[in-house]
Structure formats: structure tokens, C-alpha cells
Please model this.
Amino acid sequence: MSTRATRSPRRRTVVALAVVLAVLVAFVIRLVDIQVVNAESLRADSLGVGIGGERTLYGARGTIVDETGAELAGNVVEYDWEFNPQHVADIERDGPDGEPVVITWPEQAEKIAAITGQTPEEVEQIVADALAANPDTQWAQLATGLTTDQHQALRELGYPYLTYREHPARTYTDGAVAGNLLGFVGADAEPLAGLEASEDACLAASNGTESYARGKDGVVIPGTLNQTPAVDGGTLQLTINRDLQWYLQQMIAEEVQRERAEYGTVTVVEVDTGKVRAAAEYPSVDPNDPTASPVEDRGSRIFSAHFEPGSTFKPITAATLIEEGAATPLTPTVSASGRETFPNGVTINDIFSHPAYTYTLAGALVDSSNVALSKFGTMVSDDVRHDYLADFGVGAGTAIGFPGEASGILNPTPWDDASHFTTTFGQYFTVTAPQVASVYQTIANRGVRVPLTLVESCTTASGEVIQPDVPEPERVISEDTAADVTLMLENVYQQVANHDVLAVDGYRMATKSGTAQKPDGEGGYKQGIFYTTLAGFAPADDPEYVVILTLDEPKKNRASAANAPGFQKAMTQVLKTFRVLPSEEEGPEILPKYR
Model:
């Protein structure tokens, strides 16, 4: 065999191997390009041309709980069901006897409608409209917000063109309980009112996403699943007690209706801490269905309504005089009749007609004499009294910062001739119910004003507990002055005409009522129309809780006597709920009203 003949097969072998090697190298390069270099780009391209998909991973909005951890607002799962109009057609299935049975599209629509609450015609029209708009569409919305029972019933139909997405939806466990505080969210889960809005930074969830690619058989292709996880909202813990809140809402509803008032409120504050343990009002709102209530009933009048407090602020005049050294509970005295015209031409009336009495400061509070308080008030300057009102929180909102909260009005000095006197008995400035509660908390807390709080904490999804920023407590009056004012308020409670209606067996109490005229908007006051208030704390010898009950325009009893039955029920329930021990000693001796 020649050398040339021998080399020829070898050359062919080398060439063949080189070709094979080149092809392998090309395959390897292309494989690396597909699976490594351009993997993400190609995956994104595949999802973009319709063989992939993406869905939202919903985070759950945070829950709202009471001081004990009982849920007030949470979430349920709702379902949104969809069509693929391309696959809507008659369906053949085995009948009871094993023979095939055809279920027509109109028959299917009827079964679907019976579950979703629509009519068969509406169901058919959804598909028809989707195809009319785009003959190639693969999506049409059947219904949103379906319940678990509806969802399960649709699944059992087994129609291949139906799919669903699940998502959390807001629910308020006890309906209207604390509804005016909680607020509510819209259909899109956006917070619209109350704590849902003001504490959204704590409660809001962050949604995630999930993207993937599918084969022709609809199965997700391994390695194509990408997830950005959702983050749930935090848990908002309030200071209120759910059971007490429920009771007081039922009670104030009964009182408002019995007294034929426009509305009523009850606020409960813990003396040592300033924590609001209940804030009940009527009319109220069920956050599960806020549109069922008039717009004016969907907020919280406890925080938004401000009014002239009337006689409930006479103790502030007394505290100012004692703190400034101008008076004590028994000295000096003033002579005051039921109606007097002062040298500046201003006429002041008491609520009842009486001859001139030589009043002690304690007696002026017991009889709630406007004339006597006007005379006592002149013992210090208007500027001094203005500053004490400001120190007690008048004209400034509470630390709670509730949405729509009013600050009240404290007019600057100099005051006019009438206001020089009327400010001594709670006119010419306005307050909210929490501001009144804060004043009585300060007196009960031995002169130290503790800022009110409604939020206990926010616990994030990661477990971090965040406390709200709250101003430091401030001393407003001395401990001795607070003790003197408490003693006088306990005397008011002991000597008031409706003492038996107010009394809670075994407990000493300190109270003061107020029957405030309502401004007519023209510089005067409405005749025979009042805003009534009753505020107090117990036990008077070791104060633990403040209660304030208000009624707007009661028509059965047009004075603060209308508030007494409700106040007694509220205070009784508060003391029972928190297991407050009865007073250990009898009440103090009665201070003389007159000299």
C-alpha cells in the first residue's frame, strides 16, 4: 500500500474530528450564552411574549387589638374570579347513567350566577363584552370580593375557563365597637378615616410579586420562578379595653335616646398613665359598612366636637386662685345673689334665683354660682387665668393627635368686659371631651398632667416593638392645691341634689357637672338649648379613673341632671372592669358653703 493511500484515511479522520469538535464548541458556546450570559434577558423575553406570567403576592394589613390583645380589626381572605373567554363553550360530562351529557354555555352561566349573586344574563354579557372589545382576549372579570363559601362553590363547578386570585380584605371583628376610633378602609384597602389612616405607617403591608414561565401544557417551567416576598403590616395595640368600650357604647346609645339628645359621648382615662381606656359615642359607625351611616357619624365627635365647658371648668378657676395664694376653700368670702349687674355694666345670672349669700369658694362650687365665681375670679388678673387655662391644655390639641381633632379655642387677653367674668365659669373658650378629661386627670393625679394616649405600641412584622412619642408629664399645680380642689369636688358630689343617682356604693367620688349654653352664631346664646357635661374621678381618696359624659341638646332633661344616670352606670362599670378596691374611709367632713 502506498504512503499516499495510508495518509488519506488519517486525514479524513482528523478533518471529521475537527468538524465534530467545532460543532461541539459551537453548541457549548450557545448553551453558555442561553443559560448563563443571557439567561435573565431570555427569561424576561419569554414572560413578555405571553408564555409566562406574574401575580401579586398580597401582604396582610396589620391587625388592631385592644389593651388585652383582643382583635378589633383584622383580615379575611376574599376571592376574585376570572374568565378565559377563549375557552368558554358547551361542556360534555358523564351523566348519572354514565351517558355523556352536554351542559350548554347558558346553563353554565345560570349555575355561576346562582353562586355569585348575578343574573345569568349578566354573566353571559361579561364574556360577550370582553370578546367584542378584543376577540383574542384571554381575560374577563367575573366577580370580586367573593367569600370562601362562594369560592368553594365555584371550584366545585370545575369549569376549565374559570380561574381565581385570592387576597386579604379588611374586617372589623365586633362591628361598631370602637368604630369611630378605628376608622375604615376603602374598597382598594386605602385607609380613609380614624386610626386606620393616622397609624397607616404601622398597619400598611407591602405586596410582593411572583413571576414564572409556563410550557404549552400550562405547567410552570422549573427554574423560572422568581419571587419578591410580601411583608405584612404591624400590629397596632390600643389603650382601650374592648369589653368596657362595648358596654359604654350600648349604654350611651340608650342614654342619648332616653334623653332625646343629638349625640352623646363617654370618655374614660386612667389617672396615673393618661391612657384612654374607652371612648364611646352615639351615633356610631360600623367600619364594615361605613356608607350605612351618615357622613357626620363616621368620624369621632369625641375628638372633633368642641364646646364651651361651662361649670365643669369652675374647678380650674378655684385651682388658679389657690395656687396663686389668692384664696383657700374657706377664705376669703364673697357676697353673691342669684343675679347681679357689675360696675362695668355686665349682668351675670345663676341657674337658680336666691338672695345674697356669703359664699366660701367651696360653697360657690357646690351651688355652682356664676355670680360668686365671677367675684372670686377678679382676685387674680385675666392674664394669670388665661395662662392657667393654657397650662391645663385649653387651646391645644391632646397628644393623641386623632384625625380631625379640634384644638379648642382660647382667646388671647385682653378679654372684653363680659369675658372678664364668663371665663371664670367656662364660657368664651372651647374644649373637647378629652381636654376636659385631661383637666380632671391633672387634678386627680396630684397636679401632674400626663399627656393622653390612645396607642400603646406598634409591633412590626419582624417583631420590633415601637412605642409612640409622647411628651413628658408636667406639673400644673402643686400637690396641696390639687388636694384642696379634690376636697371641694368631693364636697360637690356629697351635696349635689342628685347625689343618690350618682352614688356608687363603697366608693368616694369627686364630680362636677356643667350645663353650657350653645352659641347662636351671632354673638349670643341659644335659649333653652344646652350642651351638658358631667366629669369626675374615683375613688376620690386614691383616684384611679376619670369619666366624662356629654350630651348635646338633651330635650327630656335640659340640664346636667340628664347626665347623672349614665355617669353612674359608666363609673360603676369602669370600677368593676378594672377591679378597683372600694374606698377604705368615709368621705371628708362637709365644708361650709356660707359664712
About this structure: The chain has 19 helices and 25 strands. The longest helix spans residues 3-37. The two ends are 152 Å apart (CA to CA).
